[in-house]
Amino acid sequence: MRLAEIPAGAFEMGSQDRRLPKQKTLTPHRVQITTSFWIGTHEVTQGEYHRVLGSNPSQFSQAGGLRDRVRGVETDRLPVDSVSWHDAKEFCLRLTQLPAERQKGRSYRLPTEAEWEYACRGGSKKTWCYGNEVKTLRQYGWYRRRETMQRTHIVGERRSNRFGLYDMYGNVWEWCSDFYEAEYYSHSPLVDPQGPSQGFSRVIRGGGWDSPAGNCTNANRNSDPPQIADQDTGFRVVCEVK
Asked: Global pTM?
């Protein structure tokens, strides 16, 4: 797995961009991330998921329900899809328990929503890591366009942001650790927010292969019940070193 170190820092979380859905939930507020962290340069792939858990739930796999859409594709390099929040947590736990990881003092978890947006922005204050022009988004992510061919795509084929992260926009939605609350930003801690203490759904970020451009931005937030495993949802991991 390739990881990139994200430095500590502060940023304005949220957005006033009127093109984004659920605008009232995105109240801009200053957030500080006090410690650096390592995050996957791309979403967990089908190959990585299978090596850790010995299974592959993906619909866009050689044995999946949508295998007709990925004929001739090296599916091990596609992001794993159709994973629930619980599946993603189990992957992190099992990866942490591997002898090589324990020996190095490494543990894995899902990113917080604040960490995800901070990493996605790559220092940008705009709608996307590169600016505000929607036409440029096709260089950075797979979203609802004719060339997406109604499926996921091999990770790392589009451009990265300044932190060296790929596929933060589109391909698959990414689970975060936080419970979802629509108005959380109105009372969120301003230092290392961890999300609400309880809730019915978990945060997903970044948009997927079938999402409109407005869902595939730095600030847009969405949610799903943690047991849901959609064909446009996956995740990436954060690594902590003791």
From this structure: 0.96
